[in-house]
Amino acid sequence: MIKKWIREALTRTTIKPSSSKTKRLIIEEVPPSERLVWAVTFSIAALGCLTALEVTYLLVKAEWNSEIFAAITSLIGTIIGIFLGAKA
To answer: Using CA of residue 31, residue 40, residue 36, residue 73, what is the dihedral sign?
Structure first.
């Protein structure tokens, strides 16, 4: 289910004018590679696990772990970069 959503979100859609006199538009969709879909799926799963780890660490130790937060921040940046780069 999440792979379908990711695949749709990363699919590029281009609209080109037709070369004929009918004035039609050609809509072309270019799907992302399967490796990219798997990488984004893994990154989102890792983000969820790291968030759960940070919450657990916060509840058990009652202090913030900056290393886990740095990993969460870098994963968020990677995921946003993938989505912005795929639409360009």
So the answer is: positive
What is the span of the domain harbouring residue 47?
2-87
pLDDT band for 87, please (50, 70, 90 cuts): low
DSSP 15-38: EEE-SSTT--EEEEEEPPPHHHHH
Amino acid at position 78, single letter:
T
DSSP annotation of 11: -
Give the number of other CB atoms < 10 A from CB of residue 6. 23
Q: What's the total number of domains in the chain?
A: 1
CB atoms within 10 A of CB 61: 9
What is the pLDDT averaged over residues 7-27? 82
What pLDDT is attached to residue 18? 75
Q: Which residues are bridge partners to 16 per DSSP?
A: 26
